[in-house]
Amino acid sequence: TQIEIEGVIDPLQLEYTTIMQFTHYDLRQLKSGQVVEVNLAGNAANVMLMDNNNFLKYRSGRASNYYGGHVTSSVTRLRVPSSGHWHIAIDLGGYAGTVRSSVNVY
Question: Is residue 3 helix, strand or coil?
Answer without folding.
Answer: coil
